[in-house]
Amino acid sequence: MENKIDxxxxxxxxxxxxxxxxxxxxxxxxxxxxxxxxxxxxxxxFFRKKINWIVLGILLVLLLFTYIYPRFVPFDRFAxxxxxxxxxxxxxxxxxxxxxxxxxxxxxxxxxxxxxDAVWYGSKISLSLAIVCAAINMVIGVLVGAVWxxxxxxxxxxxxxxxxxxxxxxxLLIAVMVLVLTRGFWTMVFxxxxxxxxxxxxxxxxxxxIIRDREYNLASRCLGTxxxxxxxxxxxxxxxxxxxxxAALEIPAYIGFEVFLSYIGLGLSDLTLGKMISEAQGxxxxxxxxxxxxxxxxxSAILSIVLFVVGQNLGDAxxxxxxx
Amino acid sequence: MAKYxxxxxxxxxxxxxxxxxxxxxxxxxxxxxxxxxxxxxxxxKVAANRKITYKYxxxxxxxxxxxxNYTDWLTDLVTNGELAAEARSKLTNLGKDxxxxxxNVAEYVKKFTDYYESKxxxxxxxxxxxxxxxxxxxxxPQLFAAKDIPVLMRLLTYFGxxxxxxxxNSAKNYEGERxxxxxxxxxxxxxxxxxxxIMGQGTFHKYLLYFDNEFPYIHQNLLSVNLGVSxxxxxxxxxxxxxxxxxxxxxxxxxxxxxxxxxxSADDLHSATYMAGSRDSIQLRKDRFLDDYTTxxxxxxxxxxxGYSFVIGLCSVLLTYLIGVPMAxxxxxxxxxxVDKIGSVYVVFITAMPSLAYIFLVKAIGNKIGIPTTFNxxxxxxxxxxxxxxxxxxxxxxxxxxxxxxYMVDQQNADYVKFARSGGLxxxxxxxxxxxxxxxxxIIYGIPGSILFSMTGALVTERVYTVPxxxxxxxNAINAYDNGVIVGVALFYAVLSVVSGILGDIMMxxxxxxxxxxxxxx
Lengths: 324, 522
What we know:
Chain A is mostly helical. Chain A has 15 helices and no strands. In chain B, helix 13 packs across helix 15 (427-439). Chain B is elongated.
């Protein structure tokens, strides 16, 4: 009892220093950790950056104009076609002629249609096509890619299949589809996705192969975890950020692809951004007609860039390693 | 390694054959055959029975089926000596329908029918189309046999004819001794100058191997690749010729013809090919040639389609590596500093923007500065290539910056880098000697591909700047239903892709000795 401190020397009683805690059996069985919700963390990280607020704001405005604006302002491309004075007007002249309205702030096009309305009408179809194609490709691609990466037997076959399908020129495929079926929205979706998923699947396959043989999966398998659970609990969370990043790249890629296809004459028959660009090509060099060419170019560029940035940053935010 | 490459090559050939097969199914089986008449101006001019035979004739031209008309069959019999020419003219008169044929005609009609039906053809007899008492325009009776070409058969014949060797039996209807001669003094140069050449008699080309003063100085006509023949875009011209033929205006030079006649001409006499009876038919040729090797290619001032595309593509590949690699290194070194951020903004813009948008932007800016925005073969200058090269390089530079930076940043935390740093190496040394070396391996894989694929041209860039390149050949062929060209170009693309994959792997294993394809450990 040599080193026992004499508490009475300090003027402190034992009751002041300690409180007695009773032992609780049920309480001791609980294990607590800081509360963590994956998606809440994702958005917390995402909105921590100021730039994301700005970009998301721009995207919201673009989406409003793309999907809501055409509902209120009906667009008829050939409404003014008989009026020869309505064609290729500069913004100032168009506003003078028709009075100020949002529709005419970008002037008029080759058929006298208001360029501003046309751009949003076109971007609605272009963006819808891109979103639908990206969604289909991602769903099929991720599912096939997961199986492809996991099974070595399927891998052997799929690598050969990929070597073949990747070498079929897509222009031909699209042209044949368009001629065999009708030239419509869903035909285009089919033509673009019939081989498009393969790229996604190949990408996912590589990711799965990288993670598949990690030690923690090996341990999981040794402990007898069924494959389904390994896939959903071990591998999928690891790949969420990769998948989100890839999906975000797909949409702008398809917007650009649609523009390209329309330019080479394989696009949709509806008015899309690509079709507007290819039709207004000649206007680029005519002084004063520039608006009808540069407006769809600018919108397609802004739309792609905004979607790209949002997707990229969302992908970054969905990586759990950034959640610290 | 050699075994591995051989396996890869065999796999590659397999996929190429399957790809060509699928392309053939797509265009010959899936597409409606009537599509080809949509833009045919002659189609509306023919009527009644003639319209049907016209369709079959065209289908044969486009390679859908094998078609034999009764009258053509009779002509063949005459040329083979099985039928007298006078008898033929009587036999061609078909009756109004099968019952009203004259006796001898009916006999030959039966012969024709039996012969082709036994070979699996469908024989069709079209009755005379009458309008009142008169036979309508194109309403004459017709008899013909037709048979679809099965895909497998088509595939086999296509690959069978892919490589053609010019032998002494290649020229049709050649009269005289067929042989190959070797000379040390090319007669084209007057027979005095030392210039070895192999010449043929009875071969399709007159010169099989020769030297001249144009790159690559030694030329051969012995082995040629036949990718197929164009039907609608360039009627009857081979795909390979369309790709490689020089364009522009004629370049005339002093030429001495075999007869000794010397004049200014653009004929390339080394390219002379055989056509029976061609010399005697035209006086012009009689004065110049001694034999029937009279068809020549002409010298022209411009490059070929593939040439322009390749030159522009190669320049843009060079520019990509010259700018992209140093930029990526710089960005990786100054990670999260101003350079890195500006670079990242560029990468985002250039990857996200539709290619058409920035190509037009470059064109508009170039126009403002005063660089020529359209291509002109006749007044060629390198400034015309500036804008296409820049337009082509912008996106590859962006992706190079993105990926090489990414690989380098990933390497920066590797153990060997920490070890090198603790060993006292300067940051510069670590970057250039160690990190760059390891990070560039995936980049090196892409080099053969980027060089080879510049041969396919760039569709949009070439169209925007009116470059007479090869980029549009495939789309033009699709729009014109030019089946021969579609198959040929698809094969060309597939070969390029397989070859660049194999070369990329070889280059990787050369640069990085750790990568080995021979062991199973891969």
